[in-house]
Amino acid sequence: MTIRAVVRGVGHYLPERVVPNAWFEERVDTTDEWIVTRTGIERRHFAAENEATSDLAVKAAEAALKDAGIGAEGVDAIIVATSTPDFTFPSVATMVQGRLGLTHGFAFDMQAVCAGFVYALANANALIVSGQAGRVLVIGAETFSRILDFEDRGTCVLFGDGAGAVVLEADKAAGTTSDRGILATDLHSDGRHRELLYVDGGVSTTGTSGRLRMQGNAVFRHAVEKLANTAHTALDKAGLSGADVDWIVPHQANLRIITATAQRMQVPMEKVVVTVQDHGNTSAASIPLALSVGKERGQIKTGDLIVTEAIGGGLAWGSVVLRW
Ligand code: UT7
Fold this sequence. Notes:
Number of strands: 13
Oligomer: single chain
Bound molecules: oxa(dethia)-CoA
């Protein structure tokens, strides 16, 4: 008998304010046409001034718990993947724990930028299969609008705010590729590429939160190569191949990256959940947002084989193969 971490519920929250590409035309030298053609992004959501990452995270968590049909007291651990926490400390995860009224278990944040949710899923899976937790609430939540330089057209048009969450639960399984739950994980990082994507401030350097800086073109090249490779590796570890995949649920940074990765994996675009047009790049929130929207749209169904993959600052990247 094998223990698998199975998704019991999924949910998301997007701030009310929708910012169309036209909004940027009035601020920087850009056009809706450039943004759509180069990225696929048409709009994104920005959090209200009084809305923090934990507010988004709590709403996504409540939606996921409702979908799972369990109360917050049924959760043993909370992991929040974020690079835009409310405060330097405490963690967003403990704030969510407090707001959900949970007084047992443990909660912590995971910082792997855009790969954060994949890292959080892999760690939640490890907690579950090792018997340390029976149910883990895994959240990706970001307010990237707070770290954008609205004078840099190369970055400010790309990102948005939002949150998504899943409830993972331990389940007994046969130990075959037909099992529901997480079947394989694959994580990587390479700190030599720090300068390609970073924030130019922080607690122990400038004492400020800083602004996002990116060499988009270089990140793009790494992304296409590394995402397809990690997805292949995770599928290999699971004993599966691209032909078995029902859905790729990729990190939503750029439609051209999503398309090129699917091509390399020889998976047709009809099997890819795409939300980048509506959300922009929401960093660690993008995959759980896409899982939730994909389920809402009727794309993702019980038993489907899903591959998620993401890359971000670090560089850090990875992939998770799971059966829904
Ligand atoms: O989630 C974390 C991982 N991040 C990513 O995956 C992002 C990866 N990178 C990308 O998605 C793309 O590289 C970008 C969308 C950021 C840029 O697209 P690109 O096709 O790589 O464009 P580029 O950086 O090579 O720039 C081409 C031109 C430049 O002008 P010149 O030098 O050719 O005159 C840029 O200055 O496009 C210009 N440009 C813009 N023009 C209009 C850059 N940003 C804009 C803009 N509007 N917003």
